[in-house]
Design brief:
With 550 residues, the protein is mostly beta strands. Among the domains are: 116 residues, no CATH class; 81 residues, no CATH class; 143 residues, no CATH class. Helix content is 4%, strand content 44%. It starts with a strand and ends with a strand.
Length: 550
């Protein structure tokens, strides 16, 4: 008697600050009847996957399935997305790994069909063409790496405190906790992309007993909680390797209709290694992208030895009714903890301003670049602890706001400053900044009056939180290549002029800026021979204690 098994997969679309949609439940019917192993879509668009009993036994004995075994053509012309989705659905059910066929080229068109990955997947030397010229649902990831574990709401937790060490909850094991207070708005953006802010949000990891991981602490006081959920963390690592992906870029109108045709990672404890992503077909217009590797609502994710591509920058009319360049990303992290990018690079010139900076992130903790050569590091709506080491950053440099320790070491920075504290979110860093053993080439060697730390703060806008400059800044063994400088150059400054209007005590900040208390500088050299200065705005930084020498 034939056995029928029904597998229901919940498809998640990418979480981004500018878009938050969920696709409907999608039923995949898996059967094991005599006859041919095949995948096809019924009249409702649902997938029917039949695997013969002999093939079931064979695949389970081998521990792996191949796309070709389910009927994938791999000829670069036939749309193989249904076959790929069906192969993964069967593999997920039986906990088998998946292997693409080396030498194959899998074409993926614009139809709605999401591939759910829950087991180790080796894309190997196969090529994947993702055609975005005619997409039915731009919000749906092509591949979604998910957990078989289900999230659940926590009851009886009505408030939280910053740096709270434990929550009182009954948990099955280590969990990722996400908490929201919709009654409080933060990150109330200022400038051309102004908005009304985001609901107060925090995300952290607890063990089975509810103890909070001290390396990623709770960073806000929650006087009220409107939603708090726990997602169990998969203890077994999931590995995704290889694959040569090419996106044929969309040609949509240039406005904030983000495309999320990507690999969405929604599971903790994942390694992506050896993947390549390229982009073709970018024309005179196009909608922006939300990251080809899009990491969200998870922890312990590493992207290693991966080659990426910066997207062409398009402009639109922003919220302030003025032209604005649109952020568009090949890497994205949102509400994610302990995310590492190791030995990653990009195909296009990291100093070519035609291409937008490659990473965007929001609500993250413990982000790492190590041995990376990329155009930008960026934390929009806050990061708690970030490290850039052994890396080279291009024309958009390091942009961040947040808390904790921002560490830049053994790296070369070719942006306009070493660290830009984003002015649209209050140029705030509540913690410490350390710059150690680095080379700074201002504006990639173009004539430029450089400052190590840039930002802007008028004190007249409410961002939804108190804004801070790093309380303590340590700069050690820094070489500044400012040999190409303008004629009126006075030497590099520690701080840019954060508020040109603040020139005396008469200037009143409605929302006062908590300024840096101490800067420690040791062994800072300039190619121009000109000495370091504190800032063009001597008044604003008059109370900063400057410690120099050994």
């Amino acid at each position: 008697m034939a056995k029928y098994t029904f597998l229901t997969l919940l498809l998640f679309c990418a979480f981004l600050t500018y878009s938050q949609n969920k696709s409907p439940l999608d039923n995949i019917v898996i059967t094991s009847e005599k006859g041919k192993t095949a995948v096809y879509a019924n009249e409702k668009g649902e997938l029917q996957v039949n695997v013969s009993p002999a093939d079931v036994a064979k695949y389970k004995a081998a521990g792996v399935v191949h796309y070709s075994e389910f009927g994938a053509k791999g000829d670069g012309k036939t749309d193989d997305i249904d076959i790929i989705a069906g192969a993964h659905a069967f593999a997920n059910m039986h906990r088998l790994s998946v292997k693409a066929d080396d030498g194959a080229t899998y074409y993926i068109g614009g139809k709605v069909r999401q591939v759910i990955i829950q087991t180790d997947t080796d894309f190997g030397k196969a090529a994947f063409i993702i055609d975005d010229t005619e997409v039915q649902n731009r919000n749906a990831s092509v591949f979604s790496v998910t957990s078989g574990l289900k999230s659940f709401k926590l009851e009886n937790i009505t408030s939280l405190k910053r740096n709270q060490g434990k929550i009182e909850a009954s948990l099955p094991g280590p969990c990722l906790i996400t908490v929201t207070n919709a009654k409080v708005k933060q990150y109330i953006r200022f400038g051309l992309n102004q908005n009304n802010g985001s609901s107060q949000t925090d995300i952290f990891v607890v063990d089975k007993s509810g103890n909070v991981d001290k390396n990623a602490p709770i960073i806000w006081d929650f006087d009220q909680i409107t939603e708090i959920t726990a997602l169990p963390i998969d203890e077994k690592p999931l590995k995704i390797t290889g694959g040569r992906f090419t996106t044929i870029a969309n040609k949509a109108e240039s406005k904030y209709t983000y495309y999320n045709r990507n690999i969405g990672i929604r599971r903790s404890n994942v390694l992506v290694e050896g993947l390549e992503h390229r982009i073709t077909g970018e024309g005179d217009q196009g909608a922006p992208y939300g990251g080809f590797i899009n990491i969200s609502d998870c922890s312990y994710v590493t992207v290693k030895s991966t080659i990426l591509t910066g997207h062409k920058t398009y402009s639109t009319i922003g919220a302030a009714d003025k032209p604005v360049s649109m952020g568009t990303y090949d890497l994205s992290a949102n509400r994610a903890l302990n995310v590492s990018f190791v030995n990653c690079s990009q195909t296009n010139d990291i100093n070519d301003s035609k291409y937008w900076g490659i990473l965007g992130s929001n609500f993250c903790k413990n982000l790492l670049y190590d041995h990376c050569t990329l155009s930008r590091f960026d934390a929009h709506q806050g990061v708690a602890n970030a490290t850039i080491r052994n890396s080279t950053l291009g024309h958009m440099g390091i942009n961040a706001i947040g808390t904790g320790l921002l560490l830049v070491e053994n790296s070369t920075i070719r942006g306009r400053s070493i660290v830009n504290l984003r002015s649209d979110y209050g140029s705030t860093w509540q913690g410490e900044l350390v710059i150690r053993n680095c080379v700074f080439v201002p504006a990639d060697g173009k004539p430029f009056s450089s400052a190590l730390i840039s930002g802007s703060y008028s004190g007249q806008h409410d961002f939804g939180y108190t804004c801070y400059m790093p309380e303590k800044i340590t700069i050690e063994n820094l070489s500044i290549d400012d040999s190409q400088h303008p004629g009126n150059y006075q030497g590099p400054a520690i701080f840019t002029n954060f508020n040109p209007e603040m020139t005396g005590d008469s200037y009143q900040e409605k929302y006062p800026y908590v300024k840096t208390k101490e800067v420690i500088m040791r062994n800072v050299t300039t190619a121009s021979g000109k000495p370091m200065r504190v800032s063009d705005n001597a008044f604003m930084f008059k109370d900063v204690k400057l410690v120099t020498g050994q």
